[in-house]
Amino acid sequence: MTLAVLDSRLPRVETPPAAKDAGRQDIAVDHPVYLARFGRATRWLHVVIMVTFLGLSATGMPLLFSEAPWARPLAGLFGGFRGAGLVHRFFGAALLGAVAWHVMNVCYRAFVRGERGLFWGPTSMVPQPRDAADLYGHVKWFLGFGARPRFEHFAYWEKFDYWAVLWGTGLMGAAGLVLWFPVAASRILPGWMFNVALFVHGAEAALAIGFIFVVHFFNGHLRPGKFPMDLVIFTGSVAVDELRHERAGEFERLRAAGAIETLSTAAPKPALLRRARLAGTAGLVLGLGLVALILYAIAQ
Amino acid sequence: MGTRFGLFVAAACLATATAAAGQSTPKPPANDDCLACHGDATAKRDDGRSIAVDAKFFEASTHGPMACVDCHADLATLNEFPHAGKLAKVECGSCHDAIKSKYRDSIHAYAKEKAGLVVAPACADCHGKHDVKPHTDPASRVYHTRVPETCGSCHAGIKEHFDTSVHAVALRKGDSRAPACADCHTAHTIQRADTDKWRLEVTAECGSCHAQVVDSFRSTFHGKVTELGFTRVASCADCHGGHDIRRASDPASTVSKAQLVKTCGKCHQGANEQFVKYDPHPNPRDYKRSAVLWWANRFYWVLIPGCFGFFGLHSALWYWRSKKDGGRS
Question: For A264, which DSSP code?
Answer without folding.
Answer: E
